[in-house]
Amino acid sequence: MTPRVQMLEGSSLTELRTRARALGGASRSYCPPFALVAFYDGPVGVDIERVVECDARFADSITAPAEPACTTDREIISRWSGKEALAKALGDAVAYDPRRLEAPDGWAGGVNGAWRAAELALPDGFCGWLCWKEAC
To answer: What are the residue boundaries of the structural domains of the chain, listed by start?
Structure first.
């Protein structure tokens, strides 16, 4: 079963948080004017980010040694978003060093063992990822 993701639109972070929390869900992410809420019966993580200008230091700080370099701001932000979604699904986004996580954008067919990943179709200027662990 694939997780379900609901996107909310709102005028403020406070409004988005209130509405997203009221929905429940297993994972939430906020980037005004949008929020994402993921629903699933197992480990899941979702992330949304605004595509902004990035410098080489940021790209280097999130890229694992075996990963190819990103060449555009969108690629960098997408990689970050994928790693954030994966870290949330693993249990604690703050506990994981992005340079030690393999980005879902490099998983063949969005599969890595029991883990699955999908880049989300979002409005222009935003990117996001959904990561989850398939039930065995």
So the answer is: 4-133
Give Dmax (Cα) for the chain.
40
More confident residue, 94 or 76: 76
In this structure, which amino acid lies at residue 2?
Answer: T
- What residue type is assigned to position 57 of the chain? R
pTM over 0.90: yes
Considering only CA atoms, which of 79, 91, 80, 74 is closest in space to residue 132?
A: 91
At residue 14's C-alpha, the angle toward residues 96 and 28, to 5°, is 35
The rounded distance, in Å, linking the Cα atoms of 124 and 133 is 28
**The amino acid at 123:** P
Report which residue type is found at 27: S
Task: Tell me whether residue 106 is exposed, middle or buried, using C-beta atoms within 10 angstroms of its C-beta: 0 to 12, 13 to 18, 19 or more.
Answer: middle
Closest to 128 measured CA to CA, from 65, 69, 100, 86? 86
CA dist., res. 51 & res. 126, Å (int): 5
Q: Reply yes or no on domain 4-133 having CATH 3.30.565.
A: no
pLDDT tens-digit series, residues 91-111: 987 788 888 889 999 999 999
